Amino acid sequence: MPYILEECEAGKVLERECYFTYRVKRESERREPKVKPSSEATKKYNTRQRIKKLRRLMNENFKDGDYLLTLDYFRNNNITNEQMQKEVEKFCRKMRNAFKKDSKEFKYIYTKEIGPKGSRHIHMLIPRCDLELIRKFWTNGGINVKPLYSDGQYSKIAEYFIKYSEKTESTLLAQGEKVGKAYYPSRNLRKPKVKKKVVSARQWRKNPTERKGYYLDKDSVHEGISELTGYEYFSYSLIKLDLEGG
User: Fold this and answer.
1) In angstroms, rounded to a whole number, what is the distance separating the alpha carbons of residues 12 and 10?
2) Pairwise CA distance, residues 52 & 60, whole Å
3) What angle in degrees, to the nearest 10, is found between the helix axes of 155-175 and 39-61?
4) pTM above 0.85?
């Protein structure tokens, strides 16, 4: 049976994943009948794919020391989703101009968190900068800044971003408002490097393959059954060692 062996290099993280595909058919193999997945299974699959895509984008474009930023809105500010969007776009525009004056490049990824009881937050990754810039350009509520520290692997942050986006989607649908994107990346982000090749089921094993200069991220090892194909998949990540730092 045909499988795809996928390798993605994003920042310090090298991801490897093997999964079944219906798209490739070899002459000596019969194609298995596709089974239509349930809506719940499709939702789980789509969530996992969004997390994977976002995780790779974060790993490629941000590093430890950059900021995980939460921008709040005052509770008594009954701001709509559309108004939130305008305010965060204005903030990003001002930050971009400030960075440009200092001959630096501003980039970001953000998602909105809108709760059913009125809470409003923006969760964002940005480069490290003078905190006074953030205080100067965000006047809609509180600010929380946390430096990144996960050795270049930001999978947990990606999971939280998608969780917030799904919460927002649920709230907006219940309120009859228009639902936007799951997350918003700036246009100047680098794309992770992805390589794929077709292998047979006999050519891959469910155990991580080591690579010199990297260590295994044990939390990244996953195996399971795809909700869409009903076949096994296996994935893990290797993180590049910081040899210069010892």
Assistant:
1) 6
2) 12
3) 130
4) yes
